[in-house]
Design brief:
The chain is of the alpha/beta class. It is built from 3 helices and 8 strands; from the N terminus they run E-E-E-E-H-E-E-E-H-H-E.
Length: about 150
């Protein structure tokens, strides 16, 4: 397949997002209730062209929760095969600030791993639970609702 100029193949566009699996000293995860759909998710968003993934995580977590973080390590890469979004998730630890909602989040909370499993959809819960696994990063695909079985 070629583009309109016929000089090279066209490639579907992808978006890159970043998210923080922020874990406190009690083993709880920082989560937000999204303002647009009411679902519990980890804080994150689209990576800006000029920022590093680590800087993007720090910015997104701060904007959505009021919490400053220190980035530890990449724990997973998650691709939504329907929307073409590739999400990079980083394990982080809180380093200051205080919880507050934002225009993107109506609530900010700290969930235990059991609460994550009970209150979050599987494609978001796995991103947090993967951050507990020392054998990371994980690479997973999903359709926006369900994980795609590993090959």
């Amino acid at each position: 397949m070629s583009n309109s100029t016929g000089d090279r193949p066209s490639t579907p566009l992808h978006s890159v997002s970043v998210a923080g699996a922020v874990i406190d000293d009690n083993g709880r995860f920082l989560v937000i209730r999204r303002a647009d759909n009411g679902r519990w998710e980890l804080p994150g968003g689209v990576l800006e062209i000029v920022e590093t993934p680590e800087d993007g995580v720090c910015r997104e977590v701060w904007e959505e929760t009021g919490i400053h973080v220190e980035v530890d390590r990449l724990t997973g890469v998650y691709k939504n095969t329907v929307r073409g979004v590739v999400a990079l998730v980083f394990r982080c630890k809180p380093s200051g600030g205080s919880e507050r909602p934002s225009p993107e989040s109506t609530e900010v909370a700290w969930f235990t791993p059991d609460e994550v499993s009970a209150h979050m959809g599987e494609v978001y819960a796995i991103r947090l639970l993967d951050a507990l696994d020392p054998n990371t990063p994980h690479v997973r695909t999903h359709d926006g609702h369900h994980l795609t079985p590993a090959r």
